[in-house]
Amino acid sequence: VDLMESGGGLAQAGGSLTLSCTASGGGFVSINTIGWYRQTPGGERELVAEIVSGTRRNYADSVKGRFTISGDMAKHTASLYMNMLKPEDTGVYFCHTDIMTADAIVETWGQGTQVTVSS
Question: Is the pLDDT of residue 3 over 80?
Fold first, then answer.
């Protein structure tokens, strides 16, 4: 499984950015979870938002009401719309998936994309 991330970059506080993630590799039976984590300098990687079993959406408390995750499980894609950005949203955002194949559940991380929010 390979993950292709796009989006991110620099935004001003109050602005918006969109991240996208596409999974490829074939042999997918189903996508158990697809979502985004972020890591700040010196901090741990934390969940931002995810889609579970194609329907349930989980969000970190810090982004509820500001971020929206959407996905197309048939196309193996997910997008994270980040609105009302704050400087504390700055970090490296990683796409993460748990995908069921014919042989196993494969956990995969993207390479990460930088999001910087200036005050």
Answer: yes
How distant, in Å, are the alpha carbons of 1, 27, 93, 100, 103 from that of 106?
Answer: 8, 11, 20, 6, 9
Mind giving me the DSSP string for 52-116? ETTTEEEE-GGGTTTEEEEEETTTTEEEEEE-S--GGG-EEEEEEEEEEESS-EEEEE---EEEE
Reference 54, options 36, 30, 20, 37; nearest CA is: 30
State mean pLDDT over 7-27.
94
Confidence band (pLDDT; 50, 70, 90) for 27?
confident
